[in-house]
Amino acid sequence: MEKPRLWFFLLPGIVVLNLVCLCMAIESPQYEVVHAESDFEVRSYVNSTWMSAPVNELSFEKATLFGFHRLVGLTMRINLQS
C-alpha cells in the first residue's frame, strides 16, 4: 500500500488559509444592525460613493472585463474612447 503524500495533508490547510486571507482582504462597508431576525438583518449603511460604467455586452465575462477597464480608465483619468 502506498503511503499518503505530504501534499494530500497540506492542500486542505492551504485552501482554508487562502480563503481566510481573501475574506480579510475584501473591504466591506460599515453598517449598523437596525433589526435582526433568525434568518435576516436590516442594516443601515454609512454614506458612500459609487461608480458605474454602462456596458452593452451580453456575456458576463466580457461585460465585467470591459466595465472594469472603463472604470480603471476613469479613475486614472485616461480617455479610453478613442
TrEMBL record:
Residues in the signal sequence:
1-25
Pfam families referenced in this protein's UniProt entry, alphabetically: SOUL (PF04832)
Q: Which UniProt keywords apply?
A: Signal
Signal is among the record's keywords? yes
Q: Which domain of life is it from?
A: Eukaryota
Q: Does the keyword Signal apply?
A: yes
What family does this belong to?
Belongs to the HEBP family.
What is the protein named? SOUL HEME-BINDING PROTEIN-RELATED
